[in-house]
Amino acid sequence: MPVRPALGAAAGSALLLLGFAAAAPSPASAAPAAPSESVTVDAEGRMADGSVTLSGTYRCLGGDGPVLVSSSVNRPSSDTHYSVGGTLAVCDGKEHRWENTGTVPAGVLEAGRVHVEAALTELSPSGVLLVPVVHAVEHQDVTLVEG
């Protein structure tokens, strides 16, 4: 399987599991982000031909499993979130840029204000499962522009 779809699938799985974790947080996932770990979202995103591109920065420390920067978008008037890809993070304590691109159903989004959530999530091995451990989350209103 090519790397990009695998990362997208992993990010989507992590977002789904984050929803379950938010409903019943465990001590590991409910812990606040360490001051040295963060994720930000740029104030402007792009959309073209049904694709949405979001970006920002992140900083993380090493973990036991792969760490992803995932993102989702929704209209302010809707509770439905649409995944916008995932990026494999380099957790070396330095600040890095991330950029995720994904498609949303036709007609769902238009240029203008949207709400974005970005999460820095480790897929930590726990037996035969990968358990999501959230390192940082950012909620940001973003302006989508065409192009």
Automatic annotation (TrEMBL):
Residues 35-146 form the DUF6299 domain. Keywords: Signal. Residues 1-30 form the signal peptide. This is DUF6299 family protein. It comes from Streptomyces atrovirens. The lineage of its organism: Bacteria, Bacillati, Actinomycetota, Actinomycetes, Kitasatosporales.
